[in-house]
Specification:
Elements (H helix, E strand, L loop, with lengths): L8 H4 L13 E3 L10 H11 L13 H10 L7 E4 L1 H13 L5 E6 L3 H9 L3 E6 L8 H11 L3 E5 L11 H13 L3 E5 L20 E6 L12 E4 L2 H10 L7 H10 L3 H22 L4 E3 L6 E6 L4 H10 L2 E5 L10 E4 L3 H15 L1
Parallel strand pairs: 1-11, 3-4, 3-5, 5-6, 6-7
Antiparallel strand pairs: 2-8, 7-8, 9-10, 10-12, 11-12
């Protein structure tokens, strides 16, 4: 008799987290950079990769990379934890401070991986709600933290998929509530470079706060899968106990370090995308859709007179792919479009206009 081993029940009942990958002319569903890194970056990475000692393990602690990231944020390397994308950063955080008998709190709608990774690691989920405008509801933060005493509380700013940037004073107040409850606050700033302020200014040696970032968006390095967090040295030391040995390969470490030699190019890309975001939003304001203000490289919108899923389907038929967020909490009928290159956005706007008017 052939009996298949079964995963634990919580995994068997779980739906995976996936972004649709189909062949289209215009792909605006995963918030990638619309253009690759500078040619000088590619050449420099290629030259260093050619010198890798392939028969040796990579540097286990990624010391050079962490030093450079620390310099970028004016902290020491002991305050930097780097991993394979910010998702592995968050997973390691949950493996270290979450787990059975512990709880993670988050406020919907927000990044789906916060709850998904919590459940994967056996961490209970306490989900509160954001305000009607998707801003942070401090009374709700107080309620959820007081009732569930979470080990980890997640905030996402700019929030994905809404694009809302939490006020720094609100984050500071949330941090005070979480600290009083003996928990840890993680501010997910995957899109932080597009926003006017950062929770990095609240970090401190005795402050239970970490801020996570990714190279995937502003650094145009989604293929590299590199993310990191900045936090107290004592917390980073605990994460290092949990993460797998040699988890960050030599090529990724090289790419992350070399990218920091091209800071001006990154800043130029951010500025260009912010300007293009404004143009895109202005054009969408002229259409029968509700558009939420965004501090990220994407825009959340809801068609008024036609179901969002129908609009998504018709856009796909026109070879334009956006993200269908209609199944996410409180986002019925909503779609999310990445800010792309000018010609990509024009193609999206023309298709959307044709569908809606």
């Amino acid at each position: 008799m052939n009996v298949r081993p079964q995963p634990r029940e919580s995994i068997a009942l779980m739906a995976g987290y996936h972004s649709l990958q189909i062949d289209v002319d215009v792909r605006l569903n995963t918030n990638e950079s619309p253009e690759p890194p500078p040619a000088a970056f590619t050449a420099a990475v290629a030259a260093e990769v050619a010198a890798i000692d392939w028969h040796r393990y990579p540097h286990r602690d990624a010391a050079s990379l962490r030093l450079r990231i620390g310099e970028l944020h004016d902290v020491g390397p002991e305050q930097v934890f780097a991993a394979n994308g910010s998702n592995e950063v968050l997973q390691t955080l949950l493996l270290t401070y979450g787990g059975p008998g512990r709880t993670a709190a988050m406020f919907e709608p927000t990044y789906a991986l916060h709850s998904h990774l919590s459940r994967i690691t056996g961490t209970d989920v306490a989900a509160g709600e954001r305000r009607a405008d998707f801003g942070l509801d401090l009374a709700e933060v107080e309620r959820v933290v007081t009732e569930s005493t979470p080990a980890i509380t997640f905030l996402c700013s700019p929030n994905n998929p809404t694009g809302v940037v939490d006020a720094l004073d609100d984050i500071r107040t949330a941090l005070e509530v979480v600290t009083a409850a003996g928990g840890l606050l993680c501010v997910d700033e995957a899109y932080g470079q597009f926003a006017p302020h950062s929770a990095m200014s609240l970090l401190g040696d005795d402050v239970p706060l970490v801020v996570s970032r990714t190279y995937s968006k502003t650094w145009a390095m989604a293929a590299a899968r590199l993310g990191y967090l900045i936090g107290p040295a004592w917390l980073v030391a605990e994460l290092e106990k949990v993460v797998l040995p040699y988890h960050l390969d030599a090529m990724t470490q090289i790419a992350g370090r070399v990218a920091l030699d091209h800071l001006d190019a990154m800043n130029e890309r951010v500025a260009a995308l912010v300007e293009e975001r404004g143009r895109l939003c202005a054009a969408m304001d002229e259409l029968p859709v509700d558009v939420w203000p965004s501090g990220a490289n994407f825009v959340l919108f809801r068609p008024r007179d036609i179901d969002g899923r129908e609009v998504w389907q018709q856009l796909t038929e026109r070879s334009v792919l956006v993200r269908d967020c209609s199944s996410w909490p409180r986002l019925d009928g909503c779609l999310r479009v990445t800010v792309g290159a000018t010609d990509e956005d024009d193609r999206f706007l023309a298709a959307l206009r044709e569908i809606l008017t």
